[in-house]
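2 proteins. here.
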Amino acid sequence: MHTAVHRSTSPKRILIADDEPHIRRILQTVLEMAGFEVDLRRDGTDALEAVRSSEHYDLILLDIMMPGATGLEVLGKIRSMDERKSTPVVILTAKGQDADRQAAFSLGADDFLTKPFSPKKLLARIHEIIDRD
């Protein structure tokens, strides 16, 4: 059963910051096929540049372990910015340790997923988070 992608005016934009090229490719493919616009960044420095820009994002996906700045550092920055503090953020990590999970949620993450993740599950979470308004 195929359901039509309902779009309100324009596609939702998602910022993805991950230093692993294959993870970026998987995320880009899955999200673009689902009708999202994707902005890919390869490290924490790139991600900070993106969040400091005037670009609109409906959701931000951050890997924890990245060169430049960690996903948690980027998350902290996002939550301190008036124009970004309500943007949903999902943390992706290969570590999945409780300390990371607690740190992510205490910094204001909307969700925390460990790699390897199910693209279908990730997509379902993204839809839940974006569509909850």
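next one coming up
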Amino acid sequence: MTQVRTRRPASPAEASACCGPIDDLLDPALFKALCDPTRAKLLACLVKCGRPCGVGEVAECCSVDLSVVSRHLRTLEAAGVLTSSKSGRSVSYEVRWKPLSGLLRDLADAISRCGPASGSTACNGACHVRR
């Protein structure tokens, strides 16, 4: 049995021509949603609360107008971080626990597989040239 060894890309430009699991996991919309300090704080409040919370409840976490909090929560929902449910005029938001933690865990694993400490070549052979 012949073992095929794939070399690591020699440069960032060459690496960008490769695709692997990490490319699918690095979702710009998710990171854009998480990069705002207010949204990060709102998400942290929801995570620590551990249950669905109304917009007014979540707004108590920070000193931002209720309409701004609502907009931030919708942005997090659009990025797949939260889910919402409506009852009359009230909207509650909840963390999408399994999808979010799974995505972040998979991303951490993909980064570890590509790192120099892994001893792998080309992200465990997962790197192939894009067509």
